[in-house]
Amino acid sequence: MSLKAILTDIEGTTSSIRFVHDVLFPYARRALPGFIAEHGNDEQVRPWLVQVGDEIGTDPDHPDVVRSLLDWIDADRKHTSLKALQGLIWERGYADGEFQAHVYDEVPDCLRAWKAAGMALYVYSSGSVPAQKLLFGHSVAGDLAPLFDGWFDTRVGAKREVEAYRAILADTGLTGAQMLFLSDVVAELDAARQAGMHTRLLERDGPVAERNGHDSVQAFDQIDLGHFDRPLPPPV
User: Fold this and answer.
1) Which of 8, 166, 182, 205 is least buried, going by the fewest C-beta atoms within 10 A?
2) CA-CA distance, 135 to 10, in Å (whole number)?
């Protein structure tokens, strides 16, 4: 089999978008002001506040930094500094038992089966790498983090840009034909396909109006790895 690796998105792919938007985001929003007041000078936190301050043109201790971060949460902005700070806040929530991460029912068994079949498993999400590890490490199905061989976030590039997927291939030493990317977002799959990857569209909540030529499934257990011995279709 030419396929050697599976790269997966999280929201809407391995895990419900509702868990992120109804549990994680509100928790981070409530906790963020107090967290920054208490930990704003910590070495894990300070550089991100400096980055936000530089972007909005103010001192990292100015109240506008917290206000901007809260506005970015409300707008679901994919900002690296925000994602890093959210990850630190969620770490405390997971550790305190405030919540466990949702994964779809078939995902754990499929991940284990793919791993047993010799697939390398990777995550690529807009959430920070620490947040990704926390989610899979504290899932309702237990600790799934050891199943993964690598983790990628927006530091490699935006998820709708082909260069991000080329960077992932370069980092893993694989060709596009050796990697399958799973996502519920067609524009992300478009970019991965431009980098030469196989793709599958997850339609967890029903059919997507425009698939743009990507084959679709409703769940991981509908994915036939044997299919990927066939040549890649030309880019659409």
Assistant:
1) 205
2) 9
> Where are the chain's structural domains?
5-15+102-229, 19-95
What is 5-15+102-229's CATH number? Answer: 3.40.50.1000
Q: Hey, what CATH class is 19-95 in?
A: mainly alpha
Residues 129-150 pLDDT 10s: 998 999 999 999 999 999 999 9
Sole residue written with tokens 């530091």: 155
Q: What is the DSSP pairing of strand 5-8 with strand 179-183?
A: parallel
pLDDT digits 0-9 by tens, 172-201: 999 999 999 999 999 999 999 999 999 999
3-state secondary structure 88-129: HHHHHHHHCCCCCECCCCCHHHHHHHHHHCCCEEEEECCCCH
Q: How many C-beta neighbours within 10 Å does residue 37 have?
A: 9
Q: How far is residue 11's CA from residue 17's CA, in Å, rounded to a whole number? A: 5
HSE at residue 170, side-chain half, CA atoms within 13 A, is 8
Q: Do 5-15+102-229 and 19-95 have matching folds?
A: no
Angstrom distance (rounded) from CA 53 to CA 48? 9
The helix/strand/coil state of 168 is helix
Positive or negative torsion for Cα 92, 96, 101, 106 = positive
On whether the CB atoms of residues 81 and 108 are closer than 8 A, the answer is no
